[in-house]
Automatic annotation (TrEMBL):
PANTHER family: OSMOPROTECTANT IMPORT ATP-BINDING PROTEIN OSMV (PTHR43117:SF4). PROSITE patterns: ABC_TRANSPORTER_1, ABC_TRANSPORTER_2. Keywords: ATP-binding, Nucleotide-binding, Transport. This is ABC-type quaternary amine transporter. It is an enzyme of class 7 (translocase).
Length: 250
């Protein structure tokens, strides 16, 4: 798998009603890292993420993935080439686990044998072996299992980057911690480049190589390792945001 970086260069998103979701963002996600975006509700985190695969299109500025301007690419091909995992997974309820994972390879018209081998490989990778889970339907799975299927589906065509929007938010708290660790181990083993939105600074501390703290208007208040952000808040905004969560090492 080739790993790619993501770059935002003076990116702005203003909606027709004049609302500015992201004012002037310059940011780089380096190949092979997990960068978590955190901040209060409505600060532009998800908008920033969705501009990468053009679910939201920037008003101005440039976003590149592996050096290629996303706005210069065919939008359908772009979205098929970027892994995307959301909170409620979005599995097709009337398709089996194996069929869900095979969705994008099918759209790309892969050979059946190639698709089958890839599905089996990915289900094994996320701890849901084909012989046990391949023929099950989403309603037969736990929340954590559905989320793993979502990750497997997102990785099906070896995307250069993986976007994740509150990926573990719908999983019960006890299961969430182990799922977070399992994902971190998977990311390290594959060297994935991951950009992830979370409302939970504790989750960011567990998962992220670096954390980006946003305030309203997609303003980047601080970018650094979890230790740097926790121990040396850049300003009063970051300090107050962290204080809402109490001690991060509890």
């Amino acid at each position: 798998m080739d790993h790619a970086g993501i770059t935002f260069d003076h990116v702005r998103k203003e909606y027709p009603d004049g609302t500015v979701a992201v004012e002037d963002l310059s940011l780089e996600v380096t190949p092979g890292e997990i960068l978590c975006l955190v901040g209060p509700s409505g600060c532009g985190k998800s908008t920033t993420l969705r501009m990468v695969n053009r679910l939201v299109e920037p008003t101005s500025g440039t976003i590149t993935v592996d050096g290629a301007d996303v706005m210069a690419q065919d939008v359908v091909e772009l979205r098929r080439s970027i892994g995307y995992v959301i909170q409620h997974v979005g599995l097709f309820p009337h398709r089996t686990v194996a069929q869900n994972v095979a969705t994008v390879p099918g759209l790309l018209k892969w050979e059946k044998d190639r698709t089958a081998a890839r599905v089996e490989e990915l289900l094994a990778l996320v701890g849901l072996p084909q012989e046990t889970y391949g023929d099950r339907y989403p309603h037969e799975l736990s929340g954590g299992e559905r989320q793993r299927v979502g990750v497997a589906r997102a990785l099906a065509v070896e995307p250069p980057v993986l976007l994740m929007d509150e990926p573990f938010g719908a999983v019960d708290p006890q299961r969430r911690r182990s799922l977070q660790q399992e994902f971190r181990d998977l990311q390290r083993s594959l060297g994935l480049t991951v950009m992830m939105v979370t409302h939970d600074i504790r989750e960011a501390v567990i998962l992220a190589d670096r954390i980006a703290v946003f305030s309203e208007g997609g303003t980047l208040e601080q970018l650094g390792s979890s230790e740097e952000v926790a121990q040396s808040p850049a300003n009063a905004f970051v300090e107050d945001f962290l204080a809402d969560f109490g001690a991060l090492n509890d």
